[in-house]
């Protein structure tokens, strides 16, 4: 187990912002993960779990505890009949390519979602009518005491952009159940989805994807646009003119710039439309 000190978190989140973590650990085996958790428990250190940080905003002050990334738990990906078994640190999009090349359908609608399989399970990531909960069948976890256990997907407490019963544990691997598919058709669908994402989303800038969850009865992007906030800036942060629910780093944004703009958007939408937007992005290291 290699616990580093004073690690800059900028390269560990898709926004490219954030201060240092007092401690940092990127285990590549479950045993290393458990040793890391014992270190955290023995020293009573606060713990933050990330995958690829593609849905996280890390504060400029960094984190006073230990940041644990599962991205190196990425060796496992194998297929048995219609099932695949995948390590939590495998990139979700790599898993999707693997399924398409193995003539398996079910995961292709999630093409282009950045981040790890573990993060996608923790967030119940979804797009184009599919959520991770629709295809994951079994989830292997380690709790904060360092004990391994497994659950069926139905026990995860999956709901819109959350897995209530997983928070407080760490996903180490998962099993997915897919159907047989036509590789050429699946690849064509993937390409179409990637094109549609590139058309609608400001992928040329760093972001966390959608900042806000979809409120009941409306869309966050539509509400933000209605308030005339497209293109609104705060320091290096900007409400994307292409997709109003994306707040992007135009180059030199600080985490404070981004957070201030998020809060400003939230307040303005509440005042002008009555809708209370809720963040999909997770804050790390903020008071
Ligand atoms: C350009 C762009 C487009 C995006 N499009 C979409 C989209 O279409 N749909 C969508 O749902 N999301 C989208 N996202 C958000 C993001 O990609 C997803 O939420 C992704 O699943 C996060 O994975 P991650 O590994 O980066 O997790 P992180 O961002 O590192 O973490 C997210 C959450 O998951 C938890 N977590 C991470 N790993 C684990 C683990 N192994 N065990 C337990 N908990 C864990 C973290 O504690 C945190 O609460 C987009 C982001 C970007 C930047």
Account of the protein in words:
- 26% of the residues lie in helices and 28% in strands.
- By secondary structure, the protein is of the alpha+beta class.
- It has three domains: 3-69, Uridine Diphospho-n-acetylenolpyruvylglucosamine Reductase, domain 2; 77-199, Uridine Diphospho-n-acetylenolpyruvylglucosamine Reductase, domain 3, CATH 3.30.465; 220-284, Uridine Diphospho-n-acetylenolpyruvylglucosamine Reductase, domain 1.
- Strand 18 (237-239) and strand 19 (247-249) form a beta hairpin.
- The longest helix has 19 residues, at 255-273.
- The chain is globular.
- The two termini are 29 Å apart.
- Residues 14, 49-56, 70, 88, 113-116, 118-120, 122-123, 125-127, 166, 170-171, 201, 203, 207-209, 282 line the site of flavin-adenine dinucleotide.
Layout of strands and helices, then pairs:
Layout: E1 3-8, E2 20-25, H1 30-42, E3 47-50, E4 56-58, E5 63-69, E6 77-80, E7 83-87, H2 92-101, E8 104-105, H3 117-123, E9 126-127, E10 130-131, E11 136-143, E12 148-152, E13 158-159, E14 162-163, E15 169-177, E16 179-180, H4 183-200, H5 220-226, E17 233-234, E18 237-239, E19 247-249, H6 255-273, E20 282-284
Parallel strand pairs: 2-5, 3-5, 4-20
Antiparallel strand pairs: 1-2, 6-7, 7-15, 8-16, 9-10, 11-12, 11-15, 13-14, 17-18, 18-19
The site of flavin-adenine dinucleotide has 32 residues, from strand 3, helix 3, strand 9 and strand 15.
């Amino acid at each position: 187990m290699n616990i580093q000190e004073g690690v800059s978190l900028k390269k560990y989140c898709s926004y490219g912002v954030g201060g240092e973590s007092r401690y940092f650990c990127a285990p590549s085996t479950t045993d290393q993960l458990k040793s890391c958790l014992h270190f955290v428990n023995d020293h009573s250190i606060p713990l933050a779990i990330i995958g690829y940080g593609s849905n996280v905003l890390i504060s400029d002050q960094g984190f006073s505890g230990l940041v644990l990334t599962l991205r190196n738990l990425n060796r496992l990906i194998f297929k048995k009949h219609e099932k695949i078994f995948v390590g939590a640190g495998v990139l979700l999009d790599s898993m999707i390519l693997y399924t398409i090349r193995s003539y398996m359908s079910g995961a292709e609608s999630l093409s282009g979602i950045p981040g790890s399989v573990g993060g996608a399970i923790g967030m119940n990531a979804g797009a184009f009518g599919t959520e991770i909960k629709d295809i994951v069948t079994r989830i292997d976890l380690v709790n904060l005491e360092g004990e391994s256990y497994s659950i069926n997907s139905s026990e995860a407490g999956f709901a819109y952009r959350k897995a209530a019963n997983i928070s407080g544990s760490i996903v180490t691997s998962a099993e997915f159940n897919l159907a047989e598919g036509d590789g050429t058709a699946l690849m064509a669908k993937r390409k179409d989805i990637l094109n549609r994402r590139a058309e609608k989303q400001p992928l040329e800038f760093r972001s966390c994807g959608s900042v806000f969850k979809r409120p009941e009865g409306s869309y966050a992007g539509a509400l933000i646009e209605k308030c005339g906030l497209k293109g609104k800036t705060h320091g290096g942060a900007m409400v994307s003119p292409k997709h109003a629910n994306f707040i992007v780093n135009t180059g030199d944004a600080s985490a404070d710039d981004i957070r201030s703009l998020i809060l400003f958007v939230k307040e303005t939408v509440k005042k002008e439309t009555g809708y209370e937007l809720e963040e999909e992005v997770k804050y790390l290291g903020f008071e």
